[in-house]
C-alpha cells in the first residue's frame, strides 16, 4: 500500500479524504458522548415559542461537536506536512479538507418537541453527525468526479489540467497522476492485482447501537444489538 499512497492518484485522494472525514466524525461523536475530557457537546439554541412565559428560557440540545472534530483533525493531519506551496502538499491539504467538509456540511438537525400533548411549544434541537456510510457515499461521488490538476505558473496553487473544466470547489477531490492498472499485479506501483480473484460470502455478527432513547436533558442511551452482516472475501 505504501507505494500506491506515495502517488497522487484519485484513489489516494479518496483515502486521504476519508481518513480526515473519519477523524472528524469520530471526534465529533466522542465529544457529545462525554468520552473526551477536552470537549463537550456542541450547543445550539432552539426556536422559541411566541408565548411570553417561555421566551426567557433558552433550551439547548446536546449535539455532536463537529467544530472540535474538524479542528483537531486538521491539526493532527496537517501538522506533519512540510511548509511551502509545492503542488503535492496543496493537493493533499485540499483532499483532507474535502473529507472534513463531507462531515461538517452534512450535519443533521434533530429536534424533540416539548409541551402539552407534544404540542411543540418548546423544541430542544441539536446537530447530529450523518451516518458514516453516508459520508463515504458522498466521497465516493466526489471520487467518481475527481478533477486532475496541474500546478499554476507561480507554483502556489493548482488548476484543472483541461482548461474547459471548472475549478474544483473545496468539497471536490483532486489528483495529479493517472491511476495504475489495479487489475494487473505490478510491483513498481505496489498493486497486487485483482484479476482472477474469487470471492465468497461470509456472515459475521456485528454489534451496534440500537433502540436509542433521548433522556431529558440531554443524554442519549442505547442498547447493544447483534446483527449479521454479509461481507465478501477473496479466496
What attributes does this structure have?
235 residues, alpha+beta, 2 domains, two-stranded antiparallel sheet, Protein Wnt
Describe the structure.
- This protein has 235 residues and is of the alpha+beta class.
- The protein folds into 2 domains: 2-183, no CATH class; 197-235, Endo-n-acetylneuraminidase fold.
- The chain is 30% helix and 28% strand.
- The radius of gyration is 22 Å and the shape is globular.
- One of its GO terms (molecular function) is frizzled binding.
- This is Protein Wnt.
- Keywords: Developmental protein, Disulfide bond, Extracellular matrix, Glycoprotein, Lipoprotein, Secreted, Wnt signaling pathway.
Number of domains: 2
* Count of helical stretches: 5
Fraction of residues in H or I helices = 25-40%
Oligomer designation? single chain
Count of extended strands = 9
Which blocks of ≥5 consecutive residues have pLDDT under 50? 46-59
The helix/strand order is HHEEHHEEHEEEEE
Report the C-alpha radius of gyration, rounded: 22 Å
Estimated structural class: alpha+beta
Main sheet makeup: 3 strands, mixed
Strand order of the largest sheet: 6-5-7
* Nearest-integer average pLDDT: 81
Strand proportion: 25-35%
Terminal-residue CA separation: 20 Å
* Mass-distribution shape: globular
Keywords: Developmental protein, Disulfide bond, Extracellular matrix, Glycoprotein, Lipoprotein, Secreted, Wnt signaling pathway
Organism: Tetranychus urticae (Two-spotted spider mite)
Main location: secreted
Protein name: Protein Wnt
Amino acid at each position: 500500500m505504501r507505494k500506491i499512497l506515495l502517488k497522487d492518484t484519485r484513489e489516494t485522494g479518496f483515502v486521504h479524504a476519508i481518513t480526515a472525514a473519519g477523524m472528524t466524525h469520530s471526534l465529533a461523536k466522542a465529544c457529545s458522548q462525554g468520552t473526551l475530557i477536552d470537549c463537550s457537546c456542541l450547543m445550539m439554541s432552539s426556536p422559541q415559542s411566541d408565548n411570553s412565559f417561555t421566551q426567557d428560557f433558552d433550551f439547548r440540545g446536546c449535539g455532536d461537536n463537529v467544530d472540535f472534530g474538524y479542528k483537531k483533525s486538521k491539526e493532527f493531519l496537517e501538522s506533519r506536512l512540510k511548509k511551502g506551496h509545492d503542488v503535492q502538499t496543496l493537493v493533499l491539504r485540499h483532499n483532507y479538507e474535502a473529507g472534513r467538509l463531507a462531515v461538517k456540511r452534512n450535519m443533521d438537525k434533530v429536534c424533540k418537541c416539548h409541551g402539552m400533548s407534544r404540542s411543540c411549544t418548546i423544541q430542544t434541537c441539536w446537530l447530529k453527525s450523518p451516518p458514516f456510510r453516508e459520508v463515504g457515499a458522498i466521497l465516493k461521488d466526489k471520487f467518481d468526479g475527481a478533477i486532475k490538476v496541474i500546478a499554476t505558473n507561480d507554483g502556489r496553487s493548482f488548476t484543472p489540467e483541461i482548461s474547459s473544466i471548472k475549478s474544483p470547489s473545496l468539497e471536490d477531490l483532486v489528483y495529479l497522476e493517472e491511476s495504475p492498472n489495479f487489475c494487473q499485479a505490478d510491483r513498481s506501483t505496489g498493486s497486487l492485482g485483482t484479476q482472477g480473484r474469487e470471492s465468497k460470502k461470509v456472515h459475521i455478527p456485528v454489534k451496534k447501537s440500537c433502540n436509542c432513547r433521548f433522556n431529558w436533558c440531554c443524554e442519549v442511551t442505547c442498547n447493544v444489538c447483534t446483527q449479521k452482516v454479509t461481507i465478501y472475501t477473496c479466496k
